[in-house]
Amino acid sequence: MVTYSQVKASNALITEATAPRVSIFVGGTSGVGNYTVRALVSTGASVRVYIVGRKSSEARTRAFIEELHSINSKADVVWIGGEVSLLAEVTRVCGIIKEKESRIDLLFLTTGYAPVGVREDTAEGIEITQTLEYYSRMLFIVQLLPLLREAENPRVISVLGGGLERTSSIILDDMELRKPSNFGPFNGQIHCSAMNTVFMDRLAREHPEITFFHSWPGWVNTGNVNRGYEPNSKWAWFVWLFLERIIELFGFSHEESGQRYLFQCTSAAYGGQGTPWNGKTGVNTMNETGKGLFLVNNKCDCTPNSKVVAELRQKAEGKVWNYTQEILKRYL
């Protein structure tokens, strides 16, 4: 376990040289992404941060940006509106970023929520939570790979369920969970989470200059436990009366969550580059200390899950890779 005091001590050492100069936060309008943006800007470093979010989030995000400017006048925080549950919108947003930047140091991906109730497909024919938690995230990575490769210490962080994979997590004969028995909050989360790991594990091997993370945030009250429930339904009341209280009691505060993710964004504990680290060195899914894909838990410890990932490479990688490429190719 990396203690919170160790995290804060490491983050206090962040300099202009180790802070990510250009960062893209997809999902930075709320939750873990929002807390991490605040932590990054609060370092006082000269950073440029792009926050990508839905039109409905623009007003509150612009107020947040004004607050960030008062915290750090050297920070350039930019809003980009985009409905990233649509892959065509992901491509449009990436086009804007490519026009403005020649390199990206950090791509931070947090969109999504557990699918509850009836299935809801987007106009592009993909179930919305699967798009947010997997397809749009992978499209952002693939679209922005050229800019990531130009950075000195590029990192990609996808926040979902890294380290929780099982060999049976991916339903290979129903990749989009079309069968009613396969669709639901539990199957949807573990299915998309394992697909994140499998696809990024392949990307990490093909692009060894980039450090990839699939992270599990633990319990943090981001508000996402309420999404998808009808207001005043019995499940909405259950979440409000019990689940949110449990999360508040046992989970991380917003500040600690942001600081822990800032640590993952900057520390040399993962891959050897970044803010100096004298603690335990993290190991990737290949059980190595160099760059690669790191599965990181809520305590900032690496959980390589190497036996499971090795089996997923063998039995699932080819189908996941080909199926994903077939969907994404329309938007590249």
UniProtKB/TrEMBL annotation:
The keyword Cytoplasm does not apply. The keyword Oxidoreductase applies. GO terms for molecular function: oxidoreductase activity. InterPro entries: NAD(P)-bd_dom_sf (IPR036291), SDR_fam (IPR002347), Sec_Metab_Biosynth_Oxidored (IPR052228). Gene3D superfamilies: NAD(P)-binding Rossmann-like Domain. It comes from the Eukaryota. Keywords: Oxidoreductase. This is Uncharacterized protein. It comes from Xylaria bambusicola.
